[in-house]
Amino acid sequence: MTATTRCLVLVAILLLESGCAAAQTADESVTRDPFEGINRAVFVFNDNVDRWALAPVARSYKFLMPRFAERGVSNFFANLYDLNGALNAVLQGRFRNAAQNSGRFVVNSTVGMFGFVDVASEMGIAPYRTDFGHTLAIWGVGSGPYLMVPFLGPRTARSATGTAFDTVASLQWQVNDSVTRNWLFAAEIVDNRAALTAAEDLITGDRYIFIRDAYLQQREYFVKGGVVEDSFSDFEEEFDWEE
């Protein structure tokens, strides 16, 4: 399982559920993954970090945390990113979605006790899932080559830029106290990783290819709003929330 790249297996799950995951042909792989040699080396590094550091902590967290508390923590971080989604919706010119996410944030931050309870969803206010990588895609920026980023995992050049923007724009980043800020980011990473423990066995075959192809197609599915031409053949090869 790949290191602090908490979205990897989540991507695979999303693809399995949507029924649109498959492997690329050799020519497509060369085109979309021109740095495969370097990417594989980083993948091994991330995998070792996960195996010896993150995964044991995440499993202990999942074992010790009551289910309702674990759900509350996940809701808390999802609530923070609803505000980030509202910002991206404004940048995309989708003001109705911006109002939708802003409303969710207000409701969950007040009635939902700082977001630990997702009251907004129970009220029928669905979240608008987006990120700055999605925003760049809407602006016409190409995805660029596939990259395996140390500690973060699979990205494209566009999604890596999006991740950097979303991190700086997040509420966690705005916390003045560096200790509190770091604890928030650490807690989010562990919570996301814990959510993926049950999905590790889904990865089959060449794990690098599985994760790469799953990520690339999930991102395509995401930025195109679920409209994707499936040009893949054999399914060989994970979520949070992000291009």
Q: How would you describe this structure to a colleague?
A:
The structure is a single chain. The chain has 243 residues and is mainly α. The protein has one domain. It has eleven helices and two strands; from the N terminus they run αααααααββαααα. A two-stranded antiparallel sheet has the order 1-2. Strand 1 (146-149) and strand 2 (153-156) form a beta hairpin. Helix 1 packs across helix 11 and helix 3 (36-64) crosses helix 10 (178-194). The longest helix is centred in the first third of the chain and has 29 residues, at 36-64. The chain is globular. The chain starts with 7 loop residues before the first helix and ends in a 20-residue tail after the last helix.
Per-chain topology:
Elements: H1 8-18, H2 26-32, H3 36-64, H4 67-91, H5 95-110, H6 119-122, H7 132-138, E1 146-149, E2 153-156, H8 157-169, H9 171-174, H10 178-194, H11 207-223
Antiparallel strand pairs: 1-2
Helix pairs in contact: 1-11, 3-10, 4-5, 7-8
Which terms summarize this structure?
mainly alpha; 11 helices; two-stranded antiparallel sheet; 2 strands; disordered N terminus
* Main sheet: strands, sense, barrel: 2 strands, antiparallel
DSSP, total strands: 2
Helix count, DSSP H or I runs of 4 or more residues: 11
Indicate the low-confidence ranges by residue numbers. Answer: 1-26, 230-243
Strand adjacency order, main sheet: 1-2
Oligomeric nature of the chains: single chain
Domains counted in the coordinates: how many? 1
Radius of gyration: 18 Å
> Could you tell me how far the N terminus lies from the C terminus, measured between alpha carbons in angstroms?
20 Å
| Helical content band | 55-70%
Which percent range describes the beta-strand content?
under 5%
C-alpha geometry: globular
Average predicted confidence as pLDDT: 84
- SSE class: mainly alpha
- N to C succession of SSEs: HHHHHHHEEHHHH
